[in-house]
Design brief:
The protein is of the alpha+beta class. Helix content is 20%, strand content 29%. Strands 1, 2, 3, 4, 5, 6 and 9 form a 7-stranded mixed beta sheet that branches. Strands 7-8 form a two-stranded antiparallel ribbon.
Amino acid sequence: MIEIKSAQAQPDSAGVMVIRPTADGWRLLVLRAYRTWDFPKGQIEQGESPLQAAIRETAEETGLTDLAFPWGEIHWQTAPYAPRHKIARYYLASTRQEHISLPLSPELGRPEHHGWRWVDLDEAARLLPDRLRPACAWLEKQLGGWNGPDEASR
C-alpha cells in the first residue's frame, strides 16, 4: 500500500531556491540532470533537519557555501509527486557568488548535474517541470516582485 502524504507532511528531500542580485534584478539558480531542471536538493539524512539537509545538499551540488537566509526559514513544499509520492521542501536563500561548480559526487564518480544557469522567473517557468512551476509564483510573492533586490538585500 502506498502512503499518500499531504503537502504539509514531513519532506523526503530538501533544497534551496538560491537567488542572486544582479543589475537586471534577481536571478534564480537552476540545475540540470539529464533533461530535467530543478533546484539544488537531496535526501534528508538521519538526525538532520530539513534546513540542514538543504544547506548540505546545496554545497555538495554547487559548491555554494555563502548562503544567506534574510527571509528566515520560510519554505515552499511540493505536492506529493513521482510513484512514491515524494515531497520536497525548498528554502529561500541568497548568494553573491556568480560562478557555480559542479563537484564530483563520490558515489557517482561524476557531478550529480550536467549543467546550471542563473535565470529570471520567466525562463525558470519554461525550464522547470510542472511540479515546480508554482514555486516561481511563491518566490515572486516572497520577494515583493522580481525586478530587483531591495537595498536591504544588497
